[in-house]
Design goal:
Layout: H1 2-11, H2 14-32, H3 34-45, H4 55-67, H5 69-72, H6 76-107, H7 117-147, H8 160-164, H9 169-179, H10 183-186, H11 190-212, H12 221-254, H13 270-281, H14 290-316
Helix pairs in contact: 2-6, 2-14, 3-4, 3-14, 6-7, 7-11, 11-12, 12-14
Membrane topology: Multi-pass membrane protein
Solcar repeats: 13-100, 115-214, 223-314
Keywords: Membrane, Mitochondrion, Mitochondrion inner membrane, Repeat, Transmembrane, Transmembrane helix, Transport
């Protein structure tokens, strides 16, 4: 009986609740928008090629025609394996930071009801950085798995055997580790990823928490969920649009050494990549795939916040 009580306390602790609720929220939200996630990556990694040039829904239709329904979800299983700890770490760190700010305020003689915006931004930035470091190798492999069977013009010259049987997750991890510099290879692109994810997560948390204050406390629960969906969509859309060029860099650095760089990217650094994209692809090059990404991010962020709060409330009931 005592052991059951300890397990119950452990599972209902603030950290456990945030971890489980955050992980479930991440997995559910990403699965809902998986086809748009795949299409976004394909659009991001085609530079001068136009294998997918029929718009978002045209690209989804093309992937379905070439690879069937499984093609729309390719990489999603690995993405869920990655996103569970990725999302869980974000919410655990954010709730931890929130608790620290409140305790510090109480120690100073006043107990704030809400964090200030700069505290939200700082807490969001910290949880974004922690989540990237904890799960980045899986993100890199997921990106490569997503484009492995795609009809990108320069990759279409690959050996037929490789196209017919794309390597699995473990094989990709091992090959990347062996052939691309060990741990360094597994973290290729982590810098542009971090400078994209950190401000994105910071803005997402700050905007959501700020807008959440406008939900009336007496509102009906069903309407409250609608409000949360709306402000979650707004926070995700605003944050992603502002930080999108770094998300594009993140994907391109991740495939830089893939297949002897058959996609043709030649970037020496983040600054060099920004200059090169501007020179060769114009301003639009920085936002290639943005529309597809918003189709993914807006509903994904909205669902993530609603699921997180629902699971959290259920576990704490």
């Amino acid at each position: 009986m005592a052991q059951d009580t300890r397990w119950t306390r452990a599972l209902t602790s603030d950290h456990s609740v945030a971890f489980i609720a955050g992980g479930v929220a991440g997995a559910v939200s990403r699965t809902v928008v998986s086809p748009f996630e795949r299409v976004k990556i394909l659009l991001q990694v085609q530079s001068s090629t136009n294998a997918y040039n029929q718009g978002i829904f045209g690209a989804v239709k093309q992937v379905y025609a070439e690879e069937g329904a499984p093609g729309l979800l390719r990489g999603n299983g690995l993405n869920c394996v990655r996103i569970f700890p990725y999302s869980a770490v974000q919410f655990v760190v954010y709730e931890f930071c929130k608790k620290q700010w409140f305790e510090r305020g109480a120690a100073d003689g006043h107990a704030p009801l809400q964090m200030q915006n700069w505290q939200r931004l700082l807490s969001g930035a910290l949880c974004g950085g922690c989540s990237v470091l904890a799960t980045y190798p899986l993100d890199l492999v997921r990106t490569r798995l997503s484009i492995q069977t795609a009809n990108l013009a320069s990759l279409h010259r690959a050996k037929a055997a490789n196209v017919a049987r794309p390597p699995g997750v473990w094989e990709l991890l091992v090959n990347t580790y062996k052939n691309e510099g060990g741990v360094f290879g597994l973290y290729r692109g982590v810098w542009p990823t971090s400078i994209g994810v950190v401000p994105y997560v910071a803005l997402n948390f700050a905007v959501y928490e700020q807008l959440r204050e406008f939900i009336p406390s007496s509102v009906d629960p069903s309407w409250a969920n609608l409000f949360k969906l709306t402000i979650g969509a707004l926070s995700g859309g605003v944050a992603q649009t502002i930080t999108y060029p770094f998300d594009l860099l993140r994907r391109r650095f991740q495939v830089l050494a893939m297949g002897q760089n058959e996609l043709g990217f030649r970037y020496k650094s983040v600054a060099d990549a920004l200059v090169t994209i501007g020179r060769t692809e114009g301003f639009k090059g920085y936002y290639k795939g943005l529309t597809a990404n918003l189709f993914k991010v807006v509903p994904s962020t909205a669902v993530s916040w609603v699921v997180y709060e629902a699971v959290r409330d259920l576990m704490q009931a």
